[in-house]
């Protein structure tokens, strides 16, 4: 009996079954309920230390640079009966203008001006300076990429001054803290299940790996001790750590 061939068949069968997590036609994804339960958000009482630690975090870091914080801040601004409807709408319009094709910019610019920069509009953003409004209206036909640069700067300053504090007291920020708590939890080897080796090279090998909590498949590269020793990988690591990397160490 060809044991090696049998092991390959078994590995392939397990791999195909696991692919159900990304290909609905193959089968249902395999999830580990115990591991999935560990992805549940904690009670907000467990996040109080995070709340205190984040008290000094800057607005730009939380609400602009971090995708999760940015998304939750936008949801806070766009919530029903929110007093920030106008600045939230302007922010969205500026993003759409920045993503628009050059041929569409002039139309997008005029739409944003009519809706948020005209005094007669119900969504007029009164916090913008008059000279900024005049400049944008005068240069709207040029439809440059940086047409709304000053508008965006003043918009973010306004949001930091008026909405940043209320956001920190809202359920949206509590949800942000819950996700940050979960993000800080260690992810160990037990979270993943290796199925088969897809390829080898260098100092390691690439395996088909499944995330046990979600059932999703990934290509995972890992080091192989035998290959490290055979290719003098440990010497390369030590020399690199010392600041001297001998090119001869890479020759097999």
Automatic annotation (TrEMBL):
Keyword tags: ATP-binding, Kinase, Nucleotide-binding, Serine/threonine-protein kinase, Transferase
GO MF annotation: an example: protein serine/threonine kinase activity
Membrane-spanning residues: none
Keyword Iron: no
Matches recorded under InterPro entries: Kinase-like_dom_sf, RGS, RGS_sf, RGS_subdomain_2
Record-level GO cellular component terms: cytoplasm
Residue span, RGS domain: 64-177
GO biological process: regulation of signal transduction
PANTHER family: G PROTEIN-COUPLED RECEPTOR KINASE, G PROTEIN-COUPLED RECEPTOR KINASE/RIBOSOMAL PROTEIN S6 KINASE
Full protein name: RGS domain-containing protein
């Amino acid at each position: 009996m060809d044991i090696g061939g049998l092991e390959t068949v078994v590995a392939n069968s397990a791999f195909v079954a696991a692919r159900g997590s990304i290909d609905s036609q193959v089968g249902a994804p395999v999830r580990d309920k115990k591991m999935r339960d560990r992805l549940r958000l904690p009670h907000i009482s467990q996040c109080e230390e995070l709340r205190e630690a984040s008290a000094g975090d800057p607005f730009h870091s939380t609400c602009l640079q971090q995708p999760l914080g940015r998304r939750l801040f936008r949801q806070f601004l766009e919530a029903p009966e929110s007093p920030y409807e106008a600045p939230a709408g302007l922010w969205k319009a500026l993003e759409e203008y920045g993503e628009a094709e050059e041929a569409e910019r002039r139309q997008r610019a005029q739409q944003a001006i009519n809706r948020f920069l005209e005094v007669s509009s119900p969504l007029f953003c009164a916090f913008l300076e008059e000279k900024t409004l005049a400049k944008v209206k005068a240069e709207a036909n040029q439809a440059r990429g940086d047409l709304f640069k000053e508008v965006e700067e003043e918009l973010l300053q306004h949001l930091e001054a008026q909405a940043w504090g209320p956001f920190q007291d809202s359920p949206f920020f509590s949800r942000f803290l819950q996700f940050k708590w979960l993000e800080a939890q260690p992810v160990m080897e037990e979270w993943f299940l290796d199925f088969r080796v897809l390829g080898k090279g260098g100092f390691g090998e690439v395996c088909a790996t499944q995330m046990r909590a979600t059932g999703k498949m990934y290509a995972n590269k890992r080091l192989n001790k035998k290959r490290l020793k055979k290719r003098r990988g440990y010497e390369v690591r030590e020399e690199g750590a010392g600041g001297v990397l001998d090119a001869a160490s890479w020759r097999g």
